[in-house]
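Structure representation:
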Amino acid sequence: MVRPKRMRRVVTCHKHELNRNLKPIELSVDEFEAIRFKDYHDIKQTESAEFMGISQSTFHRILNSARHKLATSLIEGRPIIIVKGDTMINPNKYICEDCGFQWSNPEKEYEECPDCKSTNIRKLNVTNGMNNGMKNRNRIANDTCSCPNCGYSEPKIRGVPCRTKTCPECGSLLIGRGLCNI
């Protein structure tokens, strides 16, 4: 038999609205990636650090910093903005065709998606050079959010993950195609 749940004491209980007049919390791209790998995709810390090309202890510090900033934003009602900072995009990037998960690791070749374990993955070769007179990292016109069921697609909006959108035709969650441009 399950024990009954005990009442918990809280010091404060208040409802607040997001206050756009307060100074926003700046979340760096590496903090965003740490949260995405560990908390959203539930990937082990050692594998997450490997994807980011950093040590596990550095990954842990970045993750703690990101979690502190998210908690501050929730408690104080401050908006969050993602800033680029000192990051690089690895030219050997993978994408899972089934779940849309994107990752990279220059030291390792992959046969399956670390998130859903599908073998339906492809390697994206991202170059930092010019492509048709435009830098790849600034090109988002070919990036789309697609429906895996009916094939509907729409242009990707910078800063809005495809997984937060639903297909207007069949109601399924959309998945990302192309490069992640933060």
Observations:
- Residues 166 and 173 are 4 Å apart (CA to CA).
- Strands lie at 25-28, 80-83, 92-96, 102-104, 121-125, 130-131, 134-135, 144-146, 153-155, 175-177.
- Residues 88-126 form one domain.
